Amino acid sequence: MRERNPKRNTESATNDVTPSGRLGRPHEHEDGIYREWLGLKELSHYADVSERTLRTWIHSPADPLPAAKVSGKVLVRKSDFDAYVQRHRITTLEEINVDGIVRDILEGAHHGS
Questions:
Q1: How many helices (H) and strands (E) does the chain have?
Q2: Is 93 exposed, middle or buried (0-12, 13-18, 19+ CB in 10 A)?
Q3: Residue 76's beta-bridge partner residues?
Q4: What angle is formed at CA 90 by the lines to CA 39 and CA 109, rounded to 5 degrees?
Q5: Cβ-contact 108, 101 below 8 angstroms
Q6: Cα(96)–Cα(38) distance, integer angstroms
Q7: What is the H or E stretch that residue 16 is in?
């Protein structure tokens, strides 16, 4: 009979479930090594988006995802990616100042702009 590993399938306070469903520290690669810079394949797994989407974000003319290309490999700093996603959060209707927008439009129309 096989002995059960008591540490297996348990989560400690320092562990999180990654977007791909793996258990580990948020900056830890599946091999257990900390990664500050991620290749597109690793970032794709982390973010649960395709490499093609990541390349589109990197080459976007407006607010591109910061990246570096070293010896032909595209790398993205994880903290830059997290900040990029944070900047593109969807704004809820409660967070939008609709009255202010309407006031600005009406003032612009009143002043002939």
A1: 4, 5
A2: exposed
A3: 38
A4: 130
A5: no
A6: 34
A7: strand 16-17
Query: How much of the chain, in percent, has pLDDT values that exceed 90?
Result: 46
- Give every CB contact of residue 102 below 8 A, 6+ residues apart in sequence: none
For 95-112, what is each residue's pLDDT tens digit? Answer: 778 788 888 888 877 666
**Residue 80 burial class via C-beta count within 10 angstroms: exposed 0-12, middle 13-18, buried 19 and up:** middle
When pLDDT is averaged across residues 20-41 and rounded to a whole number, the result is 68
User: Whose structure tokens read 């562990």?
Assistant: 15
DSSP secondary structure code for residue 88 in this structure: T
Q: Which two tokens stand for residue 2?
A: 């096989």
Q: Which two tokens stand for residue 93?
A: 């209707």
Task: Using DSSP, state whether 75 is helix, strand or coil.
Answer: strand
pLDDT score, position 85 = 95
Residue length of the chain: 113
Chain mean position to CA 64: 13
